[in-house]
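BUG: 3D viewer hangs when loading the predicted structure for this chain

Environment: internal workstation, default settings.
Expected: structure renders.
Actual: progress bar stalls at 90%.

Input used:
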Amino acid sequence: RDLDALNTQIAQQAQFLIETQNNALAQRIENARKRVMRQVIAASVLAVSLALAFGVWLARPFKRLQKAIVGLGENRLDEPIDIRGPADVRRVSQQLEWLRLRLTELDADKARFLRHVSHELKTPLAALREGVSLLEDGVTGALNPAQREVAQILNQNTLALQGQIEALLRFNAAAFEARELHRQRTPLLPLIEEQIDGQRLQWQGQGLTVRASGEPISVTVDPVKLGTAIANLLSNAIRFSARGGTIAIEVSGTADTACIDISDAGPGVAQGDRDRVFEPFFRGERQPEHAVKGTGIGLSIVQEYIAAHGGRVTLLPDGPGARFRIELPRTV
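Structure tokens produced before the viewer hung:
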């Protein structure tokens, strides 16, 4: 009987020890499981954070590359390209910088060539005009009617050639100046009213009415160059509008874009000319009667100045006259 009691006591103590060790082991396993879970969660958070940081670090140079490429496409050649990032990104940045410098050199060569050619043409042209004037004045002797007619034709053609050379110089200067913008916050309607007042004699002389209306929108632009673009479109509208007609200038906009619509009272642009109206020195088939012949660079200068602002100018399809639209970004 004593042995049975001792055996039972030993069995109970052994069972208690086993249960105690099992509980301790289970607790250690549970603590280890929680610790591993915390480590897995921390590692996951760290991995996601590193992935996001790497994505931002990698995406930022690509956005700069995209901006640099757009800048080259918009002929903004005065901004150096130096983009930091991975080796491949730096290599592309160096190639874009080389391309920018090359385009700058080519642009300078083109401008220099135009200046030299224009100068070389103007010098003999001035001598030719002077000689024709002497002929017309009878310095070398009296001219008969046929000779006087020939001298007048020569004079008219030398004047036309001089006008073309000066127009070429103006267009070249405008293309160069378009890269140097002095931006400031500018309300559009007062700027338009200023251009209308500046050409008051021209549109009043043709009995025209010029009306400006729309939303009071302000944009960050170069007011001088944008004013020149609006003035060129207004001058074009005055030149082509029928006597007594109305020229309408309307300002509108969206959250991202400001629009200026200029509509004239003319015959509109011929269908075959619509794709070429912004080409330098292009003159369409529908020219106004009894008007001074244009040089064909006004709309080209408009396009240069508006493109420099990151905007665009388009000829809208609806008539009856010509209707041009300037679109400008509201944020720079």
